[in-house]
Amino acid sequence: MLPSREEILRSAIFKTSRSGGKGGQNVNKVSSKVELVFNVEAFAYFTDEEKVRLKEKLQNRLDSECLLHIVSQEDRSQLLNKEKTIVKLIDLLKKALMVQKKRKPTKIPKGVIEKRLKNKASTAEKKRNRKIIGF
């Protein structure tokens, strides 16, 4: 089960800084880049199993202190960037917590096997008929 947006906002830490790239004077004046820092270990909403699953799935994105960093600097507005980081975090958590169903191996139907063998036989017959028989 995924935590609500308000619970995430209570536990997440937001850092702002000046964004790089184009933007003219706006880039030099406004701190529009937003970094969301989320502590997977300290978040009480998840069970121990869910925390282990999150650590496994997000191991490439977590730092040494089990903190998840998400950065957004696409918009010129700090508020929009903050919203985007929250959406990214919820999406990441949703994907990481999803448990894949175990695949049940199925038998290949007899009709499919027979059709494949007939196709192979007809192709072989075509190629056999193309041969030039030497006298």
Automatic annotation (TrEMBL):
One of its GO terms (molecular function) is peptidyl-tRNA hydrolase activity. One of its GO terms (biological process) is rescue of stalled ribosome. Gene3D superfamilies: 3.30.160.20. Keywords: Hydrolase. InterPro entries: Pep_chain_release_fac_I (IPR000352), Pep_chain_release_fac_I_sf (IPR045853). Its EC number is 3.1.1.29. Signal peptide: none annotated. PROSITE patterns: RF_PROK_I. Residues 18-34 form the Prokaryotic-type class I peptide chain release factors domain. It comes from the Bacteria. It is an enzyme of class 3 (hydrolase). Transmembrane segments: none annotated. The keyword Hydrolase applies. Belongs to the prokaryotic/mitochondrial release factor family. PANTHER family: PEPTIDYL-TRNA HYDROLASE ARFB. This is Alternative ribosome rescue aminoacyl-tRNA hydrolase ArfB.
